[in-house]
């Protein structure tokens, strides 16, 4: 691996070639890129580390083969060796990131996707999958045969691990320490500085206000992987369950501080990607939404979905639940097209994993049908709801809550389609089935009975 390609190599390794999502928080990615650039300049004899300071040792003039490096050298020369590695990370992180991403886009390796309404960060999926995957493949080959490591490859992997992205390359915990022990003094000092960046919240309240608590340290990640370093889960789960119970009891304002505390402790003691942490974050997002705080709830829900899919897989029940909730949020916010896009993904996954008549699948099919109706396509809504209703009847019977909900939604869509006689018939049937299955005093029974009498 060429040392002059260290920064673009680390950039491509830290971004998923299909989705373009970063494998670590934005601070961690920028720290890894600055670290890679500093080491690249050390290998080429332009910079060095003296004590804990980065100093200029080579010529200051520009080199046409390393434009990003020229920017860093110019900054060090102007600064007069007043900053340590972490100081340069803070100062140059955004600049190095932007220059490296622009270079990769201009070379046709990656493409840039702009932020979307509920996704504040841009993404860089592969434009040329072969070139985008080259650095990752080279590193994987070196990991498989450690005797083949060269210095740039070792540094690229070390920076990736220091960013907390251990899942990108399957090395296992402790590999970073082994790399640092083998690196020359200057590069080792840079990587060690990156790995020791403390866990800290973002400005304005951390994960809860800014939607992300950036876990930048591979040291903390290894601590999270060490069972001996974790407290018992029972206490955390009890606090989480207490908060979730408050949400269920329609007391979201009381639930928020309880769930915030549970999430903070889970991130610290179990790790940011532990399933218990992800569950707690999801319920905190729901509590924020129920408490009328979409500015906090929606970004956290989006980030939680990203974390669940990246760490557990898109088919995992926790990931599907998060996407289903996000779809419901879009629908209640009168964004039916966005809601439908999420619902269709969940329906496809749940149908394959759980089957078409599983209650969770039926709930998502119900949401998809209603989103079609909200989008003005009542014909598609009737097809989706009718099919789901038949599956529910066959599997669960007429009085099951899923069946009752689907029949009520079908009646609503028939009414919207200008078919009042059929709508009245379905409302009557839904009300009778609800009385039999849920009880005559159940709120759904009363609502369906009222809807029937109004027709």
Automatic annotation (TrEMBL):
It comes from the Bacteria. Residues 425-455 are annotated as: Disordered. Residues 425-435 have a biased composition (Basic and acidic residues). It holds the Pfam family GPP34. InterPro entries: GPP34-like, NLR-like. This is Tetratricopeptide repeat protein.
């Amino acid at each position: 691996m060429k040392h002059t390609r260290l920064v673009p190599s680390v950039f491509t390794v830290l971004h998923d070639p299909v989705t373009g999502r970063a494998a670590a928080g934005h601070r961690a990615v920028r720290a890894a890129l600055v670290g890679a650039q500093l080491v690249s300049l050390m290998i080429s004899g332009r910079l060095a580390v003296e004590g804990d300071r980065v100093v200029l040792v080579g010529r200051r003039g520009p080199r046409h083969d390393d434009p990003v490096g020229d920017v860093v050298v110019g900054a060090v020369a102007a600064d007069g060796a007043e900053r340590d590695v972490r100081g340069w990370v803070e100062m140059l992180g955004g600049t190095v990131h932007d220059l490296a991403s622009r270079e990769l886009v201009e070379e046709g390796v990656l493409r840039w996707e702009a932020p979307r309404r509920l996704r504040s960060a841009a993404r860089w999926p592969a434009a040329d999958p072969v070139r985008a995957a080259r650095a990752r493949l080279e590193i994987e080959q070196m990991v498989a045969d450690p005797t083949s490591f060269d210095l740039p490859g070792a540094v690229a992997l070390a920076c990736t691990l220091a960013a907390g992205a251990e899942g990108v390359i399957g090395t296992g915990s402790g590999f970073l320490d082994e790399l640092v022990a083998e690196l020359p003094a200057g590069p080792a000092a840079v990587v060690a500085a990156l790995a020791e960046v403390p866990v800290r919240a973002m400005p304005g309240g951390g994960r809860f206000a800014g939607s992300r608590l950036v876990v930048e340290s591979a040291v903390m990640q290894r601590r999270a992987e060490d069972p001996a370093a974790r407290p018992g889960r029972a206490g955390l789960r009890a606090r989480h369950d207490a908060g979730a119970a408050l949400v269920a009891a329609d007391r979201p304002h009381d639930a928020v501080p309880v769930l915030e505390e549970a999430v903070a402790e889970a991130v610290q003691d179990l790790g940011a990607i532990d399933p218990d942490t992800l569950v707690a974050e999801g319920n905190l997002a729901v509590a924020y939404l129920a408490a009328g705080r979409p500015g906090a709830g929606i970004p956290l829900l989006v980030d939680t979905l990203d974390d669940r899919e990246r760490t557990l897989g898109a088919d995992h029940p926790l990931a599907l639940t998060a996407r289903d909730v996000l779809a419901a949020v879009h629908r209640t916010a009168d964004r039916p097209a966005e809601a439908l896009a999420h619902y269709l993904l969940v329906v496809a996954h749940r149908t394959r994993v759980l089957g078409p008549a599983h209650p969770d699948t039926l709930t998502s099919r119900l949401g998809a049908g209603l989103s079609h109706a909200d989008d003005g396509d009542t014909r598609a809504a009737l097809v989706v709801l009718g099919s789901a209703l038949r599956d529910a009847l066959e599997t669960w019977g007429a009085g099951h809550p899923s069946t009752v909900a689907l029949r009520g939604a079908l009646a609503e869509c028939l009414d919207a389609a200008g078919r009042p006689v059929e709508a009245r018939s379905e409302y009557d049937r839904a009300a009778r089935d609800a009385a039999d299955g849920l009880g005559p005093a159940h709120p759904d029974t009363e609502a369906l009975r009222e809807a029937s009498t109004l027709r």
